[in-house]
Each structure stands twice: as structure tokens, then as C-alpha cells.
């Protein structure tokens, strides 16, 4: 069940919202029972999307709750307890997400001729809720927070707005709202604005330009000329941003409906003037996680230049691998790690810090180049695709014209996506105007949904 699906928009969300507000405003249930209600709704949401994997998810909640309590109480053993909990959490993630990949690669690399195994399906949200659980345990270990009770912890991990694809929220960021919250009309309209903007990003822009990206990337490499290759990656660059930031906007909006405030996950990343700046703006909750729970523990930038560059590469290789079990993701992470290391060298050796429109364009092009690797089915495809861009060929596949790939409606949304990437839509200060625009975008988005086939969020697979 995704946020842009009919069952969510017309059944699940209205039922949950109406029930929640009735329980809060009319029945006046204590906060602990409201939390329990949201846990039940969130587990139902998970079960609808992952079925039997609810057992794994529920087991993860119980396991991490128990270890959180133990780490908070057994000071002499807390280091061993934390290490054990992290290993078990990551082992579960590795099994579901990477075992098949490592198994196949081992067979190929060592010529083992291993028998085929059945595919291992990925529980929804496991990459996200695993990281949230680890951050919770580490923060207890570092005495940044106290262990939560079972209902509050279960709500923190399972709350359905962030369950499928983040943001990766830390417990202390919403702890106060878990314990006490009172949604008001302003917060509701804030939520409506963010949810509508997010839905519009997804179904109006991302899904539209995604048609172009899918067509181009599905072609044989010898049929992709330079013009088509550029249009294809430009479309994907717009698609992945509006798809993922759209999901994050919807998650933040949904959280507002229930009185929660989630951290921002995007801050106009295509306006960045360097790769360093880009990663301060793109998937910010993931960047913070890797910074605080991996980069800094590895030594950060405190142990000299060589160690700093090594730490950057390790962090971004793992960041790439977090996105999926494929060499393309590893290379994509390495690509960004190398660019960050180069920028760090330029700053440390020459005092050079890029700024201005020209570096904004250069950064956009470098990020787009990276998306080719990210989107490609394998590394050889990515290399061929990049070669096609610089071949300066205007060739098109036989029997096709450019209009087939870029009809007027897709061209319009491609331009619209570019405009909003660099000049984002600001929220009106007037509440009524804000509500009217949000409702208009919502209705338009629903109209698009009724005319198009179902398209899942890109980050749903991660």
C-alpha cells in the first residue's frame, strides 16, 4: 500500500484520520491509547504491503525494545549489548537485501558453480527501520536519551508515514510529540499542503517524465544517440528527485495530520554549488545517519588527510550499497566519494570553495552523470550510455521520431520539473490561499492517477 495508491488515498487514510480525530477530540482518549491505535494502524499498513513479513518486523520491534532496555540499565555490559544488537540488526538486513547478490557473485568470482536459489523477497522499509533502530540503541548507549516504553518505541519504529521510505527519524526528534501532542487546524493545513505538494511531485511530474526515462533506458545502446541519451538522463534526474522528495513531502504532511514534526529530507539539492553541498541537501536524514554513526566513529576528519579521504570513500561505498545489491550502486557511491575527496583536497590545499551559478550548473551535471550509473542495469551499460552522450550523434532508433519519445505533454513536465528544481514553489502565507492551492493540486493529482497506470516510488525498492 503506497501513498499514491487508491486504497491508501480513498480508504486507509480517511478511515485512520477520522477514527484518530474522533478518539482524540470526542472520546478524549489518553495519549498512550492514541499511540496504541496508531501502532495498530501502522502494523496493518505494513501487513497490507508485506504480508507474512509482519513477523520479522514485529520481532525486530520486540528485539530492539529489549536491547534498548538492557543497554539503558546494564552499564557494565552496555558496550557488548550494543555491539550484539547492531550485528543482529545488520545481519537481518544483509540476509534479506544482499544474500542473493553475494551468493551469485561468489559463484561467479570463485567459479564455484553454485546451485540456483529461490529469490529472497525484501520486507518493505527494512533499510529504513533497521537504521532507525540502530540510531535509537546508539543514542541510549551514548546517554542522549532514555529507553522508551514498548508502546512509544513501537510507534517510533512503525509509524506508517515514515515506514516505507523514511525519512530516517531519530527517537529524540519526535519523543516529545510521542508523549504529548495536540494537532491544530494550522498544523492540519500544513500537512495538507505538504501532502498535496508531494503527491503532485510524484504523479504529475515524476511519473510523467519517468515515461521518457524508462523508454530511453530500455533501448539497446546502439540505438541511443546523443540527443536521446541527454534527454533520457535529464528525465531521470528530474524523476528521481520529484519521486523521492515527493514521498518525503507526503510523509512529513501525513505526520503533521497526527501532530508529529518530521525532519526535512530535502533542501533544493539541485541548487547545490558542490557535491559536498549536494549531500547536505539530498536525503538529509540518510546523510546524517552515515555522518553520525559511521563517519565520525571512523575518525571523521580528525586523524589526518589520508584517513579522512579513506573514511569518505568507505562511507559512500556503503551508502551506495545501502541503495541496493548491485555493483552499479557501489560504483555510484565510490563516484560520489571520490568527488567529495577531490573537493576536500581543493579546500585544504588551495582554500578553494566553489560558489555561484557556474558551479551550480557543474554540480548539476556531475550529479546527473552519477544518476546514469545509478539507473543503469549494469556498469557496462552505464559506460556505453555515457559514451553515447559524448558521441555527438543525432541518430534515433529506426521507425521512431523524437516526438515518440518526447510528446508535448512530457516535454512540458520536463521543463516544469527543471523550473521547480531551481525555483521551488513557496508556501503561501495566507492559510485560505494555501488550502485552496493544496486542494487544487490534490484534485489535479487524483485526476492524473485516474488516467495513468500504477507506478511505485523509486525508493520503495531500497
SSE diagram, text form:
Blueprint: H1 6-26, H2 31-50, H3 54-73, H4 78-109, H5 126-141, H6 150-158, H7 160-163, H8 171-179, H9 185-217, H10 226-257, H11 275-281, H12 284-295, H13 305-323, H14 327-350, H15 357-375, H16 379-389, H17 402-405, H18 408-422, H19 431-451
Question: Your description of this structure?
Answer:
The structure is a single chain. The protein is mainly alpha-helical and 462 residues long. The protein folds into two domains: 6-182, no CATH class; 187-273 and 355-461, no CATH class. 71% of the residues lie in helices and 0% in strands. It has 19 helices and no strands. Helix 4 runs antiparallel to helix 5. The longest helix has 33 residues, at 185-217.
Count of helical stretches: 19
Compute the gyration radius: what is it? 23 Å
Low-confidence segments, ≥5 residues, pLDDT <50?
none
Q: SSE order in H/E notation?
A: HHHHHHHHHHHHHHHHHHH
Average pLDDT taken over every residue: 90
> What's the β-strand tally?
0
Which features characterize this protein?
single chain; mainly alpha
Structure at a glance:
By secondary structure, the chain is mainly alpha-helical. 71% of the residues lie in helices and 0% in strands.
